[in-house]
Amino acid sequence: MHSAHNKSQRLNRAEGIKLIQEMPLGQLMRRAHEIRMQYHPAARVTYICDTNPNYTNVCTTRCRFCAFWLANGSRDAYTLSPAQLAERISSAARVGATTVLLQGGHNPRMMLTDWLAYIQAIQTAVPDIHIHPFGPAEISFMAENEAITTQAILQQLWDIGIRTLPGGGAEVLSDRVRSAIAPKKCSSQRWLEVMSQAHRIGFKTTATLMYGHLERPEDIIDHLLALRNLQDQTGGFQSFIPWSFKPGKTPLGRRIRQTASAQTYLRIIAVARLMLDNFSHIQSSWFSEERQTGQLGLLAGADDFGGLLIEESVLDTAGHSHTISIQELEQDIRAMGFKPVRRDSCYQCMAS
Ligand code: SF4
Fold this sequence. Notes:
By secondary structure, this protein is of the alpha/beta class. The protein has helices at residues 13-22, 25-39, 82-94, 112-125, 136-146, 150-159, 175-181, 188-201, 217-234, 262-275, 291-297, 314-317, 326-335; strands at residues 44-48, 50-51, 99-102, 130-133, 164-165, 204-211, 237-244, 281-282, 304-307, 339-342.
């Protein structure tokens, strides 16, 4: 892990807002790429072979940007049994998945014992796979559902061998924005608090941003500053992963019909690399934006190309779906002048 820049040279809020709004894109990308090459001098780009099964689509949080959730009892509502989940993950492992990103809806009928049963079933069926389960919003929901603390849940996950957690559910860490797009989801403060607790136990996590809806540029900068601030305290974030809101069939899509532009994505990647001077990895994804936009992100400060995503259903339901082979993914990386390297969930490179 690189050391943070001299703090007196850090970009402040006003500078961040200026960069994201005004700096010409070419200049911004060049500056971010220079810093990326200082942090990671080898011309390598990492990626991971992962699978992302959603264990339930029943959700009472009903975010307005999401088309995935269904009410309990709906015709297509499902909740996988531990055996069904383990079978899906075994299938993904057979075609090369080394990590399972395990997330699902906020289903009030599920209890902590159900989560633990999932993990035990996976550990038994596919002992070598790395399990990367449950983001802060899910943990916060489970804590309320169980009437226990998030700290107690995190400790139980740690005790059964979980070591990394995804940073989903951050959306934009602004309560003004959250109350409009996801009023029932945990607050910004809560998201940061669960992350802080997790890092202090020893978990490594990612941090995310979902933009392109009702946020203003200053909300994105405040989001980055909140992440940087927590990272100063804990050092537990491994990477930053942004993606744009996909209007598709979502309720919010009736108001916002367009996906944010490729230029916006590249600006966010670049500004994140410049502002998050205490983050080692910035991800540009072949999946969440168009493939070519993901590739350009590798010249805007990103050093990671995300996951192969053998199974992904949330964006699929919003009408955003595509797949890629390992060969295609590696070719996309090579085409930008980098050597593709497979990594694990702790951002360690794996022997090819
Ligand atoms: S984003 Fe997650 S929490 Fe929100 S409605 Fe969809 S499944 Fe539920």
